[in-house]
Amino acid sequence: MAANRRHVVVTGTGTGVGKTVLSGLLVRRLVRRGRTVRAFKPLCSGGRDDALHLEAALGGLQSLDEINPWHFDAALSPALAARLERRRVDLAQVLAHVRAHAVGAGLVLVEGAGGLLSPLTADGDTRDLLRRLRAIPVLVASNRLGVLHDVRAALACLPPSVRHRTPVVLMDPAKADASTVRNARCLSEFHPADHIVELPRVSGAIQSGAVAPSAALNRRLDRILALLGA
Ligand SMILES: Nc1ncnc2c1ncn2[C@@H]1O[C@H](COP(=O)(O)OP(=O)(O)O)[C@@H](O)[C@H]1O
Ligand SMILES: [Mg+2]
Known about the structure:
This protein has one domain: P-loop containing nucleotide triphosphate hydrolases (Rossmann fold, 3-Layer(aba) Sandwich). The chain is globular and about 45 Å long. Helix 1 runs parallel beside helix 2. With 230 residues, it is an alpha/beta fold. It starts with 5 loop residues before the first strand and ends with a helix. 40% of the residues lie in helices and 18% in strands. The strands form three sheets. It has a six-stranded parallel sheet with strand order 2-5-1-8-9-10, sandwiched between helices. Strands 3-4 form a two-stranded parallel sheet. The protein binds adenosine-5'-diphosphate and magnesium ion. Residues 12, 15-21, 171-172, 199, 201-202 line the site of adenosine-5'-diphosphate.
């Protein structure tokens, strides 16, 4: 592994929390800043939308099959969906793929599937992947009632060596609840406040790159990237 290459694993408290939206925004920001970035969604299930989103964000730097070498039909965890098709993917294969295609990249971003402990391959989950890659995790969660438990539980499961330096990104939900404006402050009682970033709703036009992010959004993305040493 190149000494100056950073690996970042975008994980979260579950599915549908905003991991792909954030991954796309970070990749676009890095490309814009002239950084050499590679992105992967190694295992997709129930469609390849996440990989297509990353492909668009990368602007042709990587092919779809390079970003996403394994995909399964069923909208289940990749491990279960693979089993249904009598196929097997092991962590070692995922690691070999990422390493082979990360040559020359300063930053390698890998999106997990589901939450930190969702079964990913036949023999591991996203936590195993981030350990083996010696990656820094980004923990994405939806900023709604229940997020305090979900984030604390996920943080507690992270390797102690990375737990306290893990950026936690609270994504604004489509509909805020009474907790939304309070969660970040409350979480700061359990996790360094400067490692908690709230991200607003982002329009489809910004997500697709048709419209540039506002300066305020870029500042937040840069904050996350700075926490990742990027
Ligand atoms: N900050 C946000 N602004 C707008 N839409 C968002 C935001 N975060 C998540 N979404 C929407 O929520 C849904 C799930 O987000 P996604 O990034 O696909 O989640 P995950 O990758 O964790 O499964 C998508 O429709 C996405 O567009
Ligand atoms: Mg996703």
